[in-house]
Fold this protein.
Amino acid sequence: MAKYNKYVQIGPATATAGAAETAMVKVCQKYPNIVIVLEDMGMPGIEWFKKNAPERIVECGIAEANGAVIAGALAAEGFIPFIHSFSFAVIERAYNQIRQSILVDRFNVKITARDAPWGDLGISHDIVEGIACTRCLPNLVILNPADAVEAEKAYIAMVDYVGPVYFRMEYSAPAPYKIFTEDYPFEIGKAYAIKDGKDATIIATGYLVTEAIKAVEILEKEGLDVGILNISTIKPLDEEAIIKVAEQTRAIVTAEGGTIIGGLGDAVASVLAESAPAALVKVGVEDEFSQSARLTAEVDELKDFFGLGAKDLVISVKEAIAKREQFKLVRK
């Protein structure tokens, strides 16, 4: 068993959906000015609102652009609006309205969206470009938690944070490991080193942190000491943490459940190019759309189809190490 850092205790797979539900009930009791803007979809905590605060529900129907404008207007009046849907709807259909009516004035709107290539509705609903198309938007914080503990803490933290936040939910992904202890100190904008390594580092986000843990266990049996850096805040990116692990190993693999074009891999590549040269291999969805998978077995097939599993990370780590030797990069 690999040696992990403080606040890490690997446990059985636990879905993150319940964590968002628990967190939403906590925050809406704490903040009476939270309102939910529905777009013909459910919402974490919606049953609590129906029972206890139906006057704090605004239903827009299948009109996501209108929902974004209404959320911005409510925030301008001192409310904390939550909007929720699939990323293709809540982000891409309402892209201009989010930009103009929420982000320009940095209104305090929370966007919770189902993203990543794991769902059962295929190309139309299960987009892979959610991170890529939001990273370039000014004033927007992007969160992508790795497990249920971090999901609950991140959900609460985004409400305490004043400003627009995109909370990415990989609801249909395989259930991630329980990774963190209950006293894990989550902080927006801070990466966390799950494990230190000497030979290479996997910089992962969301569900792919679980696959990184599986890969590290395999690599340890082969005599390689590989670290894991959890990036739960995609933006603002913790460049200092990335530079630190890059200098330590000079062999980096990024891992994300989304497109590698404009995603976490490209964000890390920019940091390495500017501040800490290192061999880099990006693991994620290539230049293609998502696919459908309803059953667990089919989701596992998707993992193999897109090359997002532990075995793919093992291969990529060895490739990064080989590149480091080829480029003659020197570790600290």
Observations:
- The mean pLDDT is 94.
- The chain is about 40% helix and 20% strand.
- The two ends are 26 Å apart (CA to CA).
